[in-house]
Amino acid sequence: MDHALRIERGSGIGAALQRARMDAMWAAGAQSIHTWSDDPSAIAWYRRHFGYGAVGEEAIRHALHRFHLGDSTWWALHRGFPERASLTHLVATRQPGVQV
């Protein structure tokens, strides 16, 4: 049986997951964390809450993402806004405001 969990925006779950992701990456020695989005509200959220800075726009070539969880590899396809032709490239550094 398939199960889906509906989580509303503003519940804090996304922020907790993002913070855990960033903390794990910093602990593993990452000097910068990159992400891309075509959602203006998500871009503002990354910037406001996590210190990401926009470093440019890139054409959308694909929306296929690979994730690793334990020994498993998962693939996901995402396309949030079909009418948009570019993604904003965002970068967070250990020192907010410092571009890489």
Task: Explain how this protein is built.
The structure is a single chain. The protein is an alpha+beta fold and 100 residues long. It has one domain (13-93). It contains 2 helices and 5 strands, in the order H-E-H-E-E-E-E. It has helices at residues 13-27, 40-50, and strands at residues 32-37, 53-59, 64-69, 72-77, 86-93. A hairpin with a 2-residue loop joins strand 3 and strand 4 (72-77). The N and C termini lie far apart (45 Å).
Reconstruct the topology from this structure.
Elements: H1 13-27, E1 32-37, H2 40-50, E2 53-59, E3 64-69, E4 72-77, E5 86-93
* Low confidence ranges: none
Count of separate structural domains: 1
* Total DSSP E strands: 5
Tell me, what's the shape?
A: globular
Order of helices and strands: HEHEEEE
Radius of gyration over alpha carbons?
A: 15 Å
Largest sheet: 3 strands, antiparallel
User: Strand pairing plus helix content: what structural class?
Assistant: alpha+beta
What is the average per-residue confidence, as pLDDT, rounded to a whole number?
Answer: 77
> Which percent bin holds the helix content?
25-40%
The total count of helices amounts to: 2
The neighbouring-strand order within the major sheet is 1-5-2
Strand-residue proportion: 25-35%
Distance between the termini: 45 Å
TL;DR?
It is built from two helices and five strands; from the N terminus they run αβαββββ. With 100 residues, it is α+β, with helices and mostly antiparallel strands.
Features:
33% strand; alpha+beta; three-stranded antiparallel β-sheet; 100 residues; two-stranded antiparallel ribbon
